[in-house]
TrEMBL record:
This is RES domain. InterPro entries: RES_dom. Residues 41-187 form the RES domain. It comes from the Bacteria. SMART domains: RES (SM00953). Pfam families: RES.
Length: 195
């Protein structure tokens, strides 16, 4: 498989973002927990400055990000198991891949205004769920274009939320230039995933 950071070697399956991107917003209410699985090199409230290769980050414009979910299950499925094929039930998993990962829970001190990547919004954007939320890892270099386009078009957007590909419940990503670490209280601080 080609490196998903190299657009020249990957066949594009994701449409380009529209110039006049239309979206819907939702509110993540203050105090509602955000569960995270992340590298131990970051604290619970520390935004990732651009490491990794995820569906919506790193952003080409250099904005740091923080991923999470409505539950620990979502956080696990969106990070550890985000690229499992559909027929993977019962397949073995190398627990060594969990080394260096921690579990955290944070809660925002104020409401967060997020772009809601629900079916209605995706239709407005001119894409299907399969294009953005269910795409394979080789397409991440293209799905990240939507993150940058949303960030540029909507200065009030503090992040995005969507239905997890692997879990079904809500996952989210926050923009580090619009949400400060100080706005996130710590409920669980970086507990090791593997004991």
């Amino acid at each position: 498989m080609a490196d998903s950071d190299d657009k020249d070697n990957v066949v594009r399956k994701v449409p380009l973002p529209k110039a006049d991107l239309q979206v819907n917003f939702t509110t993540w209410i203050a105090g509602k927990l955000i569960y995270r699985i992340h590298s131990a090199e970051f604290t619970a409230t520390q935004f990732n400055p651009g490491k990794g290769n995820a569906r919506f980050s790193p952003m080409d414009n250099g904005v740091s990000t923080l991923y999470g979910g409505v539950s620990t299950g979502v956080a696990v499925m969106e990070t550890i198991f985000h690229d499992l094929p559909p027929d993977s039930a019962g397949a073995p998993y190398d627990l060594g891949k969990l080394e260096g990962l921690v579990h955290s829970a944070v809660k925002p001190s104020e409401d967060l205004h997020l772009v809601d990547l629900n079916p209605k919004t995706l239709r407005k954007m001119g894409v299907k769920r399969a294009d953005i939320l269910d795409s394979s890892a080789d397409q991440y270099v293209f799905t990240r274009e939507y993150t940058v386009a949303i960030h540029q078009a909507y200065p009030a957007a503090q992040g995005m939320q969507w239905s997890s590909k692997q879990h079904g419940d809500t996952a989210l990503m926050l923009f580090g230039d619009r949400v400060r670490s100080e706005q996130l209280g710590v409920d669980i601080e970086s507990e090791r995933v593997l004991e």
